[in-house]
Specification:
Distance between the termini: 41 Å
Structural class: alpha/beta
Shape: globular
Number of strands: 7
Mean pLDDT: 98
Number of helices: 7
Radius of gyration: 17 Å
Low-confidence stretches: none
Oligomer: single chain
Bound molecules: NADPH dihydro-nicotinamide-adenine-dinucleotide phosphate
Length: about 240
């Protein structure tokens, strides 16, 4: 049996595509999201589905420990769960900033802390944190989202420094715009329209969640002693 892979945010978009990608080559999975019905719909073999908010560390850890009892220690965690609530700093509800920082930053740190000590002890394991091109570039109306994704880049760098002596890999992936449910949670229709105008004007749309998922499997399946530290993956037509 292959080792356990934990994927957060597996109920749609990248996480869903990653679940299918890793399942098709036989990895046992723990899939995490709040909409458990979407996880169950996938109907994948050797898969445990857990209704967990990644910001709730106790619930997150309980789900991981219970999957580990069945499938052995986690060898890969993909901290993918995230929310993007675009808004103008001048007017956006600060609750939306807090939601993004709780899920996109604290959720990632929770996932790392839950698995990293066992990985260090056995000098084996991989953590993939999903940041964004908004984790290195500035885009209008992205302030709090960008703060969270720059945060993921920063915390991944520090974690890599701390874990590389133990042969544990910390990889950050920075996708560009891909059509998923992500934009749909932004509350301003004007900002959503503006985003879609940019999508039309640039012609991005070739890249799919499946491309991101295949890439995640590729970086993971490199030998443990080899790391692709950072990966930018965007539509060819997206220049930044
Ligand atoms: P989706 O909105 O399609 O998927 C987001 C996933 O995160 C869902 O499965 C959602 O599940 C889950 N999620 C959200 N909040 C929580 C929470 N509190 N606890 C557990 N799960 C949660 O978006 P994408 O697939 O596009 O996004 C995946 C990641 O990729 C995110 O981190 C996003 O920021 C990043 N990204 C996306 C880009 C894009 O253009 N699509 C570009 C760059 C980065 P549920 O609601 O059921 O809990």
């Amino acid at each position: 049996m292959k080792p356990l892979v934990v994927i957060t945010g597996a109920s749609s978009g990248f996480g869903r595509a990653m679940a299918i990608e890793f399942n098709k080559v036989g990895y046992p999975l723990l899939l995490i999201a709040r909409r458990i019905e979407k996880l169950l719909e996938l109907n994948l073999e050797n898969t445990i589905c857990a209704k967990v908010d990644v910001a709730d560390k106790a619930a997150f850890e309980a789900a991981v420990r219970s999957a580990e009892e069945k499938y052995g220690l986690t060898d890969l965690i993909i901290n993918n769960a995230g929310v993007m609530l675009l808004g103008d700093i001048a007017t956006q509800d600060p609750e939306e900033w807090k939601t993004m920082l709780d899920v996109n930053v604290i959720g990632v740190m929770n996932g790392m802390q839950i698995v990293m000590n066992d990985m260090k002890a056995r000098e084996h394991g991989t953590i993939i944190n999903i940041s964004s091109v908004a984790g290195v570039n500035a885009y209008g109306n992205h302030a709090a989202y960008s703060a969270s994704k720059f945060g993921v880049c920063g915390l991944s760098e520090v974690a890599r420094m701390e874990l590389s002596p133990y042969n544990v890999r910390v990889i950050r992936m920075l996708p560009g715009a891909v059509a998923t449910e992500l934009l749909g949670h932004t509350t301003s229709d004007a900002i959503k329209d503006n985003y879609m105008d940019w999508v039309k004007a640039t012609g991005v749309g070739s890249i799919k969640a499946e491309d991101v998922a295949r890439t995640a499997r590729f970086v993971y399946e490199m030998p443990q002693g080899v790391i692709i530290k950072e990966l930018h993956i965007t539509d060819t037509k997206q220049d930044r």
